[in-house]
Amino acid sequence: MATVRHAHTVWQGDLLKGSGVVSLDSSGLGSYDVSWPARSEEPNGKTSPEELIAAAHSSCYSMAFSHALAGAGHAPTRLETKADVTFQPGEGITGIHLTVRGEVPGVDADKFQELAEDAKKNCPVSQALTGTKITLTAELIGS
Q: Is the pTM of this model over 0.90?
């Protein structure tokens, strides 16, 4: 069954001096201030579309990689995924770099890398962002 999640933003003013508030409606987890300076300069306590994409991508990738590892008989003890989304004013989002570190009993480094790349390709958020270059660094720790 398909699911639909909801968020909305209320923006006031022009791009450079205006600001907005994005609300996570489905979860009710909160509302977050957004502004152009938070996007193109320093966050100063506000979020940006790129930070929200990074949050979505890191969590989706962790789920996809966990599933791939478990399906190969190597359920992870722990995965820590970071997503760095690069925004260049005037160009847009120019790339996303995923960094994952995993504690996975019984898996060798080659299989870990293979499954990490497969998860990058098959993660639904990665698939939604196919117009963006996505790179990956995967590190197996404690094996």
A: yes
